[in-house]
Structure formats: C-alpha cells, structure tokens
Amino acid sequence: MRAERTSPFLSAARALLLIGVLAHPARSQESAAPPERTLPAELAAAPAFFEQHCVKCHGPAKHKANLRLDLLRWDETDEGALEHWQAIVDRLTAGEMPPEDEPRPDSTRVDELVNAIRAFLERHAPAPRSTVLRRLNRVQYRNTLRDLLAIDVRIEDPTSAFPADDVVAGFDNLGEGLVMSDYLLRQYLLAARAAVDLATFEGERPAAGSRRMFDPDSTQAGSFEINHIDTSRGKTFLFMNDERSPGDTRGQVLTTSRDGAPHAGWYEFSFEVESKGRGPLPATFRPPIHEEFQIYHPEDLHRLEIYLSAPLGYPIQTRNRILVDSLDLADDQRVRIERRYWLERGWRLELAFGNAWTGLIATYVARLGGPSDDAIDPLSPTERFKLYASLTYDLVERANAPRIVIHAASEHGPLYDSWPPASHVSVWGDPAAPLEERVRSFAGRAFRRPVRSGELEPFVQLARESPEGLRTAVEAILCSPRFVYLVEKQGALDGYALAARLSYFLWNTMPDAELLAAVGELADPSKLRAQCERLLADPRSDEFVEHFTWGWLKLQNALDLGPDPMKFPEYHRSRIGTAMVTEARRFFRTLLDQDLSIANFVSSGFTFVNADLARLYGIEGVRTTAAFQRVELAPEQRRGGLLGMAAVLTASANGVDTSPVVRGSWVLDNLLGMPPDPPPEGVVFPDPDARGELTIRELYAKHRTEESCNECHKSIDPLGFALEAFDPIGRRRETYESGLRIDPSGTMPDGQPFEDVIGMKRVLLDDLELVTRSLTTKLLTYASRRTLGAADRGEVDRIVSAVAARGYGLRTLVLEVVTSRIFTNR
Amino acid sequence: MAGEPRRDPGVISRRSVLRGVGVSLALPMLASWAPRSSRPRAASPRRLAVFSAPFGMVEEGFHPRAAGFEYELPRTLAPLAPLRGEFTVFSRLDHGMKGGHAANHTLLSGIKLAERGAWPEGNVTVDQRAAEVLGAQTRFPSLVFWNEGLSFTRTGLRVPGVKRPSEAFRLLFVEESERQKRFTRASLASSGSILDAVRADARRLQEEVGREDRTKLEEYFTSIRETETKLQSAGSWLERDKPKVEDQAMAGVAEGDRDEPYGAAQVELWFDLMYLALVTDSTRVVATNVENCNWGLEGVHQTYHTLSHHRQRDDLLQQLGIVEHYMMRQLARFLGRLKAARQADGSTLLDTTQVLFGSGLGNGNRHTNDNLPMILAGGGFRHGQHLDCAGKQPLCNLYLSMLQALGCETERFNRSNGTLSGLESSGVAPPR
C-alpha cells in the first residue's frame, strides 16, 4: 500500500465526488434550519473545528468547491446529508484537507472529530436499498423457456416481438427499469402458446431420410442447391458475394433442399470442402464499378460460414438468417466438416464464403466471351443461370480464382434423442399420471421452488376446465408472476432464491438440476463459492461475460457509432464492429478464467484480434478472420488494456470526430467510477468549427484558465488528450485531418506530467484501488440487479480490500461478489 | 439534379407476386371506410401524424427572421410555400432540456426516462396520450413507424416500432395466413381464463410479499386489466378483412423489395404508408422519423450524422441543406395529399389531421436541445404564422393545445402550464 504520496488522481477524483455531493447542499444550505437547532451530540465538536480550520475557504466569503462548512446539515433521514459527512471523513482521514500549504490542525483533534462523525454515521446508517421485485428481462425469459421446455429458441424465438428492456446504470437487467405493461403481458400469452406449440410433438415419430448433393436418385425437392449450379461437374464452388449487400453473404450460398426440413428435429450434416486459389485476385474478376467494395484480402485464410435460414416465404433481404458457425480453412486441403443442428420445419442450412470478394455476375457476362445478347434473351431464367454458371465456372477454374470447393454435402434427419422428445415430456408429463400431479411437476420447475397446494389451485382448475386441458395451465404458469418475477423475501435469501440469483447472474437462465440439488447448503459460503466456480467453468457463463461487458463498456455504442460507411466501407463489410466487441469479451473472459489482475484493464501486454482487427491496429501476421488469436503487444503500439481497444475508443467517440471531454468522461465514468457532473447552467458551448486553425487545446483554453471550469476539467481533459492519439474508430494517428500534429501529453491534477497514453496509463495504475472499487460496484449492481447506495459502501470497501490483498484477480472479485452480504441478502 | 434520389444502374430487382396482396380497386373514398358504428353523414374523426428528424435543423435555413403572418419563408421551408396558410412554424420553443442526444427521446414528452417516476403520467408522449383517446375505433390504436425510443405510454412501455416497410404494409393490408389466424384465435380463446388464473395467483402472492413489492405487483394487475379490455377488440378485428389497396407506388413493398437500402426512397415510402394508414382509417395516430443514413440523393455524399457535425464547413453545410430541403419537400407532399383527400362531411383530411414535425435536437452541430425546429400543420388551427415563443412557454403547452383539439379532456400535459398562447383554432371547429 502506498504510504507517502496520495495518488494524484485519487484526490482530484474525490474532488469530483465531493462536488457532486456537496454542490447542491451549498445552494440549499441557504434555506437550511437556523443554527440554533441542537446539533446531535456526536457532532458537537464540529462547528468549532470547522470555524478554526475550514471556514476561511469554505464559508461565506469564499466557498471553494461550492462547499460551505459554516452552514451544516445533519438531517439523518437525508441520504445526501449523510454522504456529505462521509465525504468529510474521507478527506480528513486521507490528509487531503486542510491542504498542505495551510496550517495543520492537531492530529488528535482530527482523530477525535473523525471518530465522532463515524459514530454519528453508524448510528444513522440508512436502510440498505432493497432489490425491488423484478421480472426476468427478455434474454432471461427466452433462455428460461429454452431450458424449462427443452426447446430451441434460436430459430423460432417466441420473444422476438417483446419490447426492449430499459437500461438503468448501463444494464438492462435492473429491477427499476423492468416495467410490466399490457403489451408485454399480451406478448407473454402469445409466447407461451408458441413455446408449447414448439415443444409438442404428436403422432408417429417421422422416419429419418438422407439427402445428398448431386444425388441422381433424389428429387429436386430433396437436393442441395446453389445459384448457378452445374450438375455435370460433380462438385460446386462458392466464389463471390453480392456487392449490393456488403457484409452480408447472400449473393451466393449453397443451400439444402428448397422446401427445407420436412419436420422439426435434429439434422446431421456432413460436408467436404476445400479452399483453393487464395491469392491476388485475377484481373478478370476485378469489377469495373464500385471499386470501394472490392475488398478481398489474399493474405487471410478463406472463411466458411454456416447459417440456418428461414423458409422461402420470407423476402430474401429480410429472411431470417442465423450464423451458427465460422471456420477458417487451410489452403488446398480437403476438410470434412460434420455438424448437428436443430431445424424447424421448412428451415434450411446454408454455406457461404464469408470473406469472398464481391461482384455482380451480370457484369462479367460481357467479359466472359460468351454468347451475345441476342442469344441470351430468348433463354428462360433457368437456362440463363445455367449458362452463366458454366461459363463462370470455367473461368474461375482456369484463372484459379479464390473459391471454396464443395466436393460433397449430405444431410440426414430428422433425428430425435427420444420419442416423444424431451420438450413434449416437459410440458405434458407422464400421460398416466393424474392431472394435479402433472401440473405440480411443471409448476415446481417453473417457479424454481417446490409448490404449495394452495398455489396450484387456480392452475389445476384451469387444466380441468379448459377444452385444451393441461396446456392451458402450462401457458398460464408461463405468464404468472411467480414465473415472470424473481420472488425474494426480505433479509437473507433462502437456498432457492439464492440459487436463482446465482444462476441468472452467471448463466442468465434458471438453475440447473445440480444447483437445485445443492440449495440446502448454499448458506455455507464455501459451498456457495464451489457452485460459483462450477458455473463459471461452464461455457454457459459466456452469458455473463457477454452481457456484463455490454453494459459496463456501453458496447452498443461501439456498434452504432461506426464510421461513415461511404468513407470506410471496409468497416461494415468486414463487420469490424462485431470484431471489436469480440475482442473486449475475449479479454474479459481470459482475465476471468485465469484470475488475472484487474490492472490489465488499465494496461496490459496482450489482447485478442482477428485479421480484420489486426489490420486496424497495424499488427502483422494474423491471418484468420473467424478465429481470434492472442497477440503480445509491444509498448510502442500504445495499445493494451481497455483504453487501447477499438471498442472503447469507438464507443467514446461519435463516428465522425473525437472529443477529449467525451473520452475523458468515459474513462472517469466507466473505469474509475467517478462520473463528472454535467456542466453548470449557462455554459454556452462554442459551435464546433473546423475552419479555424486552433488546436483542441486552444479551443479548451477556458477549461484551464477559469477556476470554476478547472475544478472538473483538470481531471477530465488530460485523459482525453492522451486518447487523441486514436481516431474515432481506434486507429492510431499522429496528426488530425487538418494536418495539425496531435499532442497527447498532459498533466495529472496533482501536477504529474505524462508524455502520452503510456505514461497516462502508468499513472492510472497507481489508482488500482479506485478502478477495483468502480468495477466492484458495477459487478454488484449487475449481480444484485439494483443500484447501490450509501449503506452499501462498507461492504464494497471490504470486498476491495480482500481482492487487493490477494492480487486483484478478476475471478477472485467475482467470487467475493457472490459471497458478499449484498448478493446473499435481498 | 441535386436533391433527387439517385438511380442505381444495374440493379436487378426481384419481383415475385405474393398471393393475396390485394385485388385491384380504386383507392377507396374515405366515406366507405368510416367505422360501421358511425352514422351515414358522420363527422370526421380527428387524427394525428408525427414526423421527426434526429439531428435538428440548421437554424438560418429553418427559423424565419420576422414573427407573425408576414414573415419571409426561409430557404429550407421553401417547399412548403404553396401550403403557407396550412401550417405554423415555431421558434424558441423547447423543453428546457440539456443532454444532446441523451435528451433526444424527450421530444414528444418533455420528460427524461430517468425522471418518469416523479410524474403522474410517467413520460407519456403526445402521440400515445392521443392514442388513449383516439385509439379505440381502429384496428391499430397507433402505429409507430420507427425504432423504439420516441414513443412511450404512461405505464413506461417504450412502444415497439414497425421497422420495415414490408412489415408495415403486411400489417395494414395483407391478410394473415389461415395458420396465423388459427394461432391467434386459439390464443384469444384461452387468454381470458388464463388471465383469471394468473390474477388469482398474483393476489395470493401479494399477501406474501412486502410493501415495496406490492407496489410493483400493481403494475402487473394494471396490465391484466388493460389486456382484458384489449382482448375483446382484438378478437373482433381478427374476423374483419383488412382494407385492400392497389397503388402503383406500393409495388414490391409487401415482398420486401423496398426494405433496403434505407435512404431517401424509403423516407418517401414511409410517408406514403402513413398516408395510406390514415386514409384507410387503419389508425388515427401514426408517427415516423428519419434515421441516420446514406441519403442516396444527388449531391450528397456523406451520411446524415456526418453532415450534422458540419463544424461550419461549407461543403458539408451545402449537402446538409440539400437533405433538409428534401425532408421539407416530403412533408409538403404529405400535406398536399392530405389536403386533396375529401371526407364525407366535406372537410379535407388535413382539416381534421394534426401533422407535427420536430426534432429533439435544436442545433445538431452543437448538440443543444433549445430552440427546437417545430412545425404544426392542419387539425383545424389557424395557421400561416411564424410564432416566436421567445423561450417563455414550454413545448408541452403546444402538445396540450393539440391534445385538447383532439378531444382529450385534460388541463395538463407533463410540463405544460397552459395551452400555447398565440395558437388558435381556425374557428371552423372540426366536428366532434
């Protein structure tokens, strides 16, 4: 623990906190109770102390940081007042006040006062905010349906029309933001019905059939298809994507049968593919128009993509299409790929060449030396396609153009693990059992705890009276508050409630059988910790990584604030936004799995990139676009940690230009947990003006020269200036568009200088405690699904100390969160 | 020509005839679509249409210099010249907001999402408040043709928007498949008894939980009540045929041919869909907006968002001018169509439809939320003026005036402190 120097940042950052807390009291202090009211006993010594040591700067004449200590508030029911006193304690104990250049009070007196204030705070600690009864959010509802009914929800998503959940404190799973409305209830009714339909299988088990590409015995309906197929060759290939939809590989795909899967069920697929011709694009295939979409990187391995796609009735552009797998293919090697997917009736599987070059088949016709227009016009569309296909294939092979050859493709199904399938049994139960028994069995699993008879009554009655019988009761249960809300009693959570909390925290779904079996032991922290470890080790914990990072780092902005597609089409074509998000998640996942230090979020020697992201960062040697690789970062690359990641740099810009204030505020808010207050009333922003010759520092001159501005901006601006070294999508730059050189140097609030972002990050590392506290708060918010308040401060401090003592590991932190009072109590 | 949609050579359009799109009929006269319950020479119902832009409007081009009826039309508003007497343009009217984009969602309510707990009607937006009054008679109480985030109900629901023209067209004019209808009928048949069962369960739960949770459960009970009311009308609409529309401008829409790309052509299409929705009385409250996009207009080479951050560069300002002028052209075209549609009682659709244009940002370059660019047309008000509100009246006052004229019996709307002074009815009161 650093003894001598207080972190330069910590004190300034605390100043921000104080300003936030105390600015308002200064105004309202004017109308506070007159001084004659009796001060609480603990605070008796305060007025004299303040008069002697503080009021000179924090009084009627001068009120620095908008704070007046001659007017005191001590209304113990006012949480703001209590924060106020806590802040005073903080400043006194840290030795930050009085400032070093002022006469110091006797340290015994300081101690006495601090202890007295602490006693006051302890006596009046406000009741902790409790988690409001909150419903499952959309993702949780969908995952729960999936697991409760053993159905696939990827293809036919019963929640697709649900309204979006509101975001509070960055996350969409907080109780405060999750309202119920008649619209949503109606959606629950429809979703429940749809889910039961998906789960139900009646009649005989359908026989499995096989379909092969080019199978002479199979009918048209059963065979594989591709645009421009030429059946005489015994193979087919994918070689180009449609330039009209960059980033969307619909131009040319290999699809399974026209009518799609004959029945809902599992289907096994087997493909034999070979990547060929990787290299510079032959001249014939460079299209004459729309050059900017001509993005093919010969250094990258060819990527095969597998999609599940909706039946033909849907319009082609809007046809639902789900990417289920992505593979980088080695050159000139026949590879056998086997997969098993669940398909709904009518759905199909598609193969696509993900990073093919783009073009339009029609533009090649003239160059292919084929028949004239007069010869083509009378042909039917099918004949025309056949002709194009034949001509193009010849050309592609002769020129050895980049392509993925499909040597064989087959499909076998529908297959079932049992009959009727598990989903059917989960709804309908054992047909021989009495109705009440079947309702109880379903309700018990749905309500995530054993049910009492009285609770069952309305549903049993429904099952008896409804013409559709049991299914009406099942649908009702899926709409009932005990399913839709997480019900918790006040105080320490019982085993079932804790199991649910843990499961939704780490897996975003209902507890599994193993967790339910352990509910009796969860009051024991070591058992709770063991379950937490088990859940973290399971791939389902990717839900936690995905959704927590999404909310913490505001990753939606990384996708929304991409650059102008006309200026940088590659960004959208190569889905760089998605790659950025993947990098952030992989990084978080690695720190979590290996319990690496939180310091890595500030500064780190490695990250994860694919070929597209590597190009953005100027890193050589990465050739895969599907697989992400770990790369070691050299210091001169100035990357590493969150502040070197394109996702963060994009989310903190606006797609057009950067602003040091916005980026600085992002760092303060999301990394350090000290969001700055908005600017005071009456500040007029200058109209951003790119015509002038002023540098950004000159434009922001008032932030330094005006004292009231400087209070906050001395903490915000330096961070932002350091990050000016990156453009709006995170690329390195030395100059602005105007040609002016970028100056990434700055000075921390305490005067410590830095040259650039490397130095800045080194200084931030001194504040690891602050970063940890911020991350702890966010994790607790996400895990307990409520915003934290003053009363939680003690527990947060305890967790931070515990984690610091053991090396600041991220996994350690998550375990501390799960065993904390905040998580295990309502 | 600048400002025209670019024609893309070489695009092969895919057309396939979708069965059931609609038999050819002349565009129906409004009279034949009057609700069955109305009398033969019934008074025309009132309606509301909203059109919003995300990045404000360049001030010099939008806000006239002089106030009153004799003002000179600024260049962006030039396309509205033939309709000068049909609209009012406002200046220095806003919600007193700060927050740039973060406050954009407050355009139609004046209340930030985070604050809604403190207001009796939450952050309900003017269109949804109107739908409470106007929505009972039509298949759709309201239609929101945009992404979520601009319309909110009083219970806090962010109204989901219809995102694609094909989806909108199918909702309005294409009969659902028999399979779909069977599904809906079956759902409706059991919904009533399901809601009874869950209400009983919720009552039981309410006794077991603490005070705070009981308040939260109130939301659930309210939702049950409101759903029950809506189930009734949902059932009867299911059995009624949708209106049939044969309009050359709609060719390919249902099939999804016009779903991509998003740009000028699609903005025009959304206006057409709004018009059709109103003229077939499928809804009486409709809203659409413009998103960030590549406009695909001659002379415009940057995305809308980039242009809004013009930083005073001449080339960007010039392109932005083309975009804004184009939006006003579309508004003028829409107003023109409403004005040309005669109703059974002799009034025009414009007489009984309020059309609101606005943006949640005032100055897109500076990201400020004051002096919002607002226009109100139609709806039986006395128009033709530039009303400079001098920052002295909240924008919610305008909304209150609008709601009262739509038949809403209320004295308040969110931050209002009265109706908007300076805006009067035309004296020819739209019949109730």
Number of separate helices of chain B: 10
Total DSSP E strands of chain A? 18
Shape of chain A: flat
Rg from alpha-carbon coordinates of chain B: 22 Å
What is the molecular shape of chain B? Answer: globular
Question: Helix/strand/pairing class of chain B, anyone?
Answer: alpha/beta
Please name the defining characteristics of this protein.
heterodimer; A: 826 residues; five-stranded antiparallel sheet; 33 helices; disordered N terminus; B: 432 residues; alpha/beta; seven-stranded mixed sheet; 33% helix
Any overview of this molecule?
Chain A is built from 33 helices and 18 strands. By secondary structure, chain A is an alpha+beta fold. In chain A, strands 2, 4, 7, 10 and 13 form a five-stranded antiparallel sheet that branches. A five-stranded antiparallel sheet of chain A has the order 3-6-11-8-9, with no helix packed on it. In chain A, helix 6 crosses helix 13 (470-479) and helix 30 (768-784) packs across helix 31. The longest helix of chain A is centred in the N-terminal third of the chain and has 21 residues, at 8-28. The model of chain A is unreliable at 1-8, 12-36 and 218-223 (pLDDT under 50). With 432 residues, chain B is α/β, with parallel strands linked by helices. Chain B contains ten helices and seven strands. Chain B has helices spanning 59-62, 126-134, 165-173, 178-208, 211-238, 264-279, 304-308, 314-340, 349-352, 395-405; strands spanning 47-53, 87-91, 143-145, 285-289, 353-359, 374-378, 386-388. A seven-stranded mixed sheet of chain B has the order 3-4-1-5-6-2-7, sandwiched between helices. The termini of chain B are far apart. Mean pLDDT of chain B is 85; it is low at 7-42. Classes of the chains: A alpha+beta (826), B alpha/beta (432).
